[in-house]
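Work Package 4 report. The design task specified in the project plan requires that, given a folded chain encoded as structure tokens, an amino acid be chosen for each position. We show below one input record used in the internal validation round.
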């Protein structure tokens, strides 16, 4: 009985590790933490994937491989930028920047390293001329 439970737990850990490996190594994906400002939840670690006009955020730990949040570029308002303190979240390392965003009624922060932040800014700036963007 105990051996069976250990085997099942081992398989679950292996599947979770495989999910993390696939999400972080797939093309066009960057590590990105998300925190909802309206729900008072903490930071959640995930992967951001860029699509044509939107950014898909997929949690790193979860059952389903589909995006939990879809951030549409059209109408996205970026209102601030700040450095994330080391005491704010255990997993953050030096050089992580949080960006405060609003997309419709949703207010949230995205935290990412400088390389991912450069890609995010380039993605915002590459919007077609007809797109409404508000970047403070």
């Amino acid at each position: 009985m105990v051996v069976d439970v250990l085997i099942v737990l081992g398989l679950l850990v292996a599947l979770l590790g495989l999910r993390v490996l696939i999400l972080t190594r797939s093309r066009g994906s960057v590590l990105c933490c998300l925190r909802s400002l309206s729900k008072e939840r903490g930071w959640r670690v995930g992967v951001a994937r860029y699509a044509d006009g939107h950014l898909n955020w997929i949690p790193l730990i979860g059952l389903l491989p589909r995006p939990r949040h879809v951030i549409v570029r059209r109408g996205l308002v970026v209102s601030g930028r700040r450095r994330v303190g080391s005491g704010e979240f255990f997993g953050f390392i030096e050089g992580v920047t949080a960006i405060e965003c609003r997309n419709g009624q949703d207010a949230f922060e995205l935290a990412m390293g400088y390389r991912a932040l450069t890609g995010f800014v380039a993605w915002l700036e590459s919007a077609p001329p007809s797109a409404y963007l508000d970047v403070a």
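The chain has one domain: 2-135. Validation will be extended to a larger panel in the next phase.
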